[in-house]
Specification:
The structure holds two protein chains of two kinds. By secondary structure, chain A is an all-alpha fold. Helix content of chain A is 72%, strand content 2%. Chain A has two domains: 244 residues, Orthogonal Bundle (MetI-like fold); 258 residues, MetI-like (MetI-like fold, Orthogonal Bundle), CATH 1.10.3720.10. In chain A, the strands form two sheets. A two-stranded parallel ribbon of chain A has the order 1-2. Chain A has a two-stranded antiparallel sheet with strand order 3-4. The longest helix of chain A is centred in the N-terminal third of the chain and has 34 residues. In chain A, 43% of the residues are buried. By secondary structure, chain B is of the alpha+beta class. Chain B folds into two domains: 222 residues, Rossmann fold (3-Layer(aba) Sandwich); 120 residues, Nucleic acid-binding proteins (OB fold (Dihydrolipoamide Acetyltransferase, E2P)). Chain B contains eight helices and 21 strands. In chain B, a hairpin with a 2-residue loop joins strand 9 and strand 10. Classes of the chains: A mainly alpha, B alpha+beta. At the A-B interface, helix 19 and helix 20 of A face strand 6 and helix 2 of B.
């Protein structure tokens, strides 16, 4: 007879869950733990020691870099909110001629990697910039572009679209009837906006503020190219990494720990505050957009065009630069040559091939991983999966440079040696981009009812096979979209690459960075153009033929 | 012959017992309904039979075979889900063919079977549509066809009509019942709608807190409820406090506030109440033997009938229905006398 003892058969998903967890432990948890350990021991004696942190707090350069990072983050956050939030409000609530061009903004953030944006604005406003000379001619003297001006300017221009995209989504999710209720109860439009709309948007504003703050702390290429003598944590970590090469890695570990702590703190605050302040809102129709007329319409249209123009300028500048003759660092604008492009395509195609190979490996591995992980997180609750849920978002708290340093030190000795191989580079891209893929795959899974999987099982298909036969096909558009985004953002990755690459394994952004560093802006432009083309083509194909909506879940 | 036997089944979640030592036998070809309010355990029981929930104790027998621990995909049950659970990326044809393809049925036969079942649910012309392009009633019929086409050992339906509008719901009752009888298949139907249960079922198990409160035919359940719970859940009977009850053959002489009435059922130990359906009470102007005095509180006109609320001697409000043709149109405040038909019965409190 059957006894009353419960015999729970192990879930067929336990093994995949443990494998996914193992991958993340190997690529994130363990390297990060090793980094923390390294920062807190004395390299000579191997004893526990806070010597490194003492040096950090006693050295003005380090402390200054820490505060500079905070200031840059605050300035960038304020600037992006001031640009992005009103733009989102106007686009959500008003109709005006030419409104559709604003749809180009999310596209701009993807096809224009920050290194391209930095370089383009350098060509315009740098010491020999065309725009600088033009303004000087009419008597306007700009401050030097190297330093706070350049960093804040490019960072804000580069990141405000994230605020715009986030706030637009939040505005569209508002149930219009709550505003109608406020008006019906006698509130004026201004009062309604301040007492009903703004409080409901507050959590979204906060989330987006935190996101752009972490992006600013995270950014590597903008402070490296435009920082001048102003140190921030990301650039200082890299220069410390270079100077400690071969020596003991204490200070780079300390700097890395400080920036992880900073971003970790911000993400923690975000989670606590947002969780407490998120409201349950009934799904309703968003308020109808109001048609703007007359002067208002003209103002709105020109504003929108200006925003889009500013975001697209880098593409134009880099395109011009790529076909302009240059003697060393001096650009001869007005001339035309194919020499730069030819050099990049024919004489030095390795970086292009390297970038394509690495991005493809990372995207394929990352997509498979994200599909299974998001399925486990959304649909299969068990202990291993709850752990996975936490660990998988950990990479968001780690900047690329820190991740790169952590990986290098973990895998340069011992049983598995990966330092100085392409595997470690692909692994870094994988870790950095996979949280975003998991997010969009999860979003699609939440809208798939559990019952269709049960229906398949009920009709005779075993559980794991049911996943492949009914869940996967429904997830396909989201997965493909995530894969393409993972691929194109991996192509533009530089902050981890800069510490991980080795001779012969340069990528397109690395090649650009080197040329910019050496002052060869025309050659850098050529790589920039190729990078943009390689990014645009798959996006165009995806939107055109697969009808993917790439920007909904970003 | 018992087709399905549920033997001493228990399911707990933490401290809450969802199914409490439940015993049940369902006959072959029967249309069997599990009826009850939300949280009574009816869906849990259905999902146990489908294999999505494993009982903590007890056994499930299907055709003399113990299926308690058989994996869900091997049970050969056909389930119709509350939200239909159609595969959104597959056409109507492919949805229905899914179970046949799993069973490696040859393609020509699949085509023939799917077409035949789609004809039967009157969806032959929509075979190439996607679920998103169908109305609620059409989706419902696809779900039904998908479950029936594999010729399952038992058809399981989890509140399949709850997402349809009122008119369609009544139409689909007939469709489902007819398909079930034509296929001569055992069906288990879960609902919280008493009218659905009464109109479709051969037998109904009324569930309460994971136990069967009453297992009966629709007629039995309506005309002879055994408990106040059953009387109230099916057809919303008035429940009156009983001061005394005395056996009189198959009937009892029951003392309630204001007088004595004759009701079916024997007096019972431990709390009892008089269950009186609104249509089993008549209104009189003149006092006579066995009439109970009351006062009109209000009258509602409902077209085919008039519904009165009456206040009894003890202050209790009683609902009384009168056919429109016989409605004396008593205004509020009128003193009246109520006659209780012997169809009213004694029930467990």
């Amino acid at each position: 007879m059957m006894t009353a003892i419960r015999m729970r058969a192990p879930s067929p998903w336990l093994v995949p869950a443990l494998l996914c967890l193992l991958v993340l432990v190997a690529l994130v948890v363990w390297p990060l733990a090793a980094l923390f350990y390294q920062s807190a021991i004395d390299p000579q004696t191997g004893q526990a020691s806070l010597q490194g942190f003492q040096t950090f707090f006693n050295t003005p350069r380090y402390v200054q870099a820490f505060f500079n990072t905070l200031i840059l983050g605050a300035v960038s956050t304020t600037g992006t909110l001031l640009l992005g939030a009103p733009l989102a409000y106007v686009v959500a609530r008003y109709d005006f001629p030419g409104k559709t061009v604003v749809a180009l903004l999310p596209l701009a953030t993807i096809i224009l990697p920050d290194i391209v944006v930095s370089q383009a604005w350098l060509m315009l406003l740098g010491n020999n910039g065309i725009a600088r000379h033009a303004l000087e001619a009419v008597g306007i003297d700009l401050p030097s572009f190297y330093g706070w001006f350049g960093m804040a300017f490019v960072l804000i221009l580069n990141d405000y679209t994230y605020v715009y995209i986030g706030m637009l989504a939040a505005l569209k999710a508002i149930d219009g009837t709550i505003e109608e209720a406020a008006v019906n109860l006698g509130a004026s439009n201004l009062r309604r906006a301040l007492t009903v709309t703004l409080p409901v948007l507050a959590p979204a504003l906060l989330i987006n503020a935190m996101i752009v703050f972490t992006l600013a702390v995270d950014n590597f290429s903008i402070p490296m190219i435009l920082g001048g003598r102003v140190d921030v944590l990301s650039s200082l970590t890299y220069t410390t990494f270079l100077s400690e090469m071969g020596g003991n890695p204490t200070m780079q570990s300390v700097l890395a720990v400080v920036s992880v702590a900073l971003v970790g703190f911000v993400l923690f605050v975000q989670k606590r505050v947002v969780e407490r302040k998120t409201y349950q809102m009934q799904q309703g129709r968003a308020p109808q957009a109001i048609r703007a007329r007359g002067a208002a319409a003209v103002a709105l249209t020109s504003c929108a065009v200006l925003f889009v123009a500013f975001s697209m300028i880098p593409a134009v500048i880099v395109l011009i630069g790529a076909f302009t003759k240059a003697s060393g660092p001096v650009m001869q604008y007005g001339t035309f040559t194919l020499e730069n492009m030819e050099r990049a395509l024919r004489n030095a195609p390795e970086p292009i091939l390297n970038s394509l190979m690495l991005a493809s490996v990372a995207a394929v591995a990352g997509t498979c991983f994200a599909t299974i992980t998001s399925y486990l997180i959304v649909k299969k609750r068990m202990l291993a999966v709850s752990l996975l849920d936490y660990v998988v978002m950990l990479p968001l708290a780690i900047s690329g440079t820190v991740l790169g340093i952590a990986l290098i030190h973990t895998y340069n000795s011992g049983m598995i040696i990966l330092t100085g191989t392409w595997v470690i580079m692909a692994a870094a891209y994988f870790v950095r981009k996979v949280p975003f893929s998991i997010r969009s795959a999860s979003a699609s899974l939440y809208s798939i009812p559990d019952s269709i999987e049960e229906a398949s099982i009920n009709l005779g298909v075993p559980p794991v096979a049911s996943f492949f036969k009914v869940i996967l096909p429904v997830m396909k558009p989201a997965i493909l979209g995530a894969a393409i985004l993972m691929w194109v953002t991996s192509l533009a990755e530089i902050s981890a690459t800069i510490v991980l690459y080795y001779g012969g394994m340069e990528t397109m952004p690395i090649q650009m960075f080197r040329q910019i560093d050496a002052g060869y802006l025309a050659r850098a432009s050529a790589y920039g153009v190729i990078l943009m083309v390689v990014i645009i083509v798959p996006i165009y194909l995806a939107v055109r033929f697969l009808k993917l909506d790439l920007f909904s879940s970003r | 012959m018992a087709d399905i036997a549920i033997q001493g089944v228990v399911k707990r979640y933490g401290d809450t017992t969802i199914i409490d030592r439940l015993e049940l036998e369902i006959r072959h070809g029967e249309f069997f309904t599990l009826l009850g309010p939300s949280g009574c355990g009816k869906t849990t029981l259905l999902r146990m039979i489908a294999g999505f929930i494993i009982p903590d104790e007890g056994r499930l027998i299907l055709d003399k075979q113990d299926i308690t621990r058989m994996p869900a995909h091997k049970r050969e049950t056909g389930m119709v889900f509350q939200d239909y659970a159609l595969f959104p990326d597959k056409t109507v044809f492919d949805n229905v063919a899914y179970g046949l393809r799993v069973r490696k049925v040859p393609a020509p036969q699949i085509k023939q079977k799917v077409e035949r079942i789609l004809e039967r649910v009157e969806l032959g012309h929509l075979a190439q549509r996607y679920p998103g392009e169908l109305s609620g009633g059409q989706r419902q019929r696809v779900a039904l066809a998908r479950a029936l086409v594999i010729e399952p050992r038992v058809l399981l339906m989890d509140e399949p009509l709850s997402n349809l509008d009122a008119k369609l719901r009544i139409q689909m009752r007939d469709v489902i019942r007819q398909l079930q009888q034509e296929s001569n298949i055992t069906a288990i139907f879960v609902t919280h709608d008493q009218e659905e249960a009464l109109s479709m079922s051969d037998r109904i198990a009324l569930l309460r807190n994971g136990k069967i409160d009453q297992l009966d035919t629709p007629e039995g359940l309506y005309s002879r409820p055994r408990s106040a719970y059953a009387a109230d859940f099916i057809g919303a009977a008035n429940l009156l406090d009983v001061q005394h009850a005395q056996a009189q053959g198959e009937y009892s002489l029951v003392t309630i506030a204001g007088g004595r009435v004759l009701a079916c059922g024997a007096p019972m130990e431990g709390g009892q109440q008089l269950a009186a359906r609104p249509e089993h009470i008549s209104i009189h102007r003149e006092q006579a033997a066995d009439l109970i005095p009351a006062e009109v509180v209000y009258r509602r006109y409902l077209g085919f009938k008039a519904a009165y609320a009456m206040r009894m001697a003890d202050g209790k409000i009683v609902n009384v229905d009168v056919p429109a043709a016989a409605d004396p149109s008593h205004p509020a405040g009128t003193p009246v006398f109520l006659g209780f038909s012997p169809n009213c019965c004694l029930v467990r409190a």
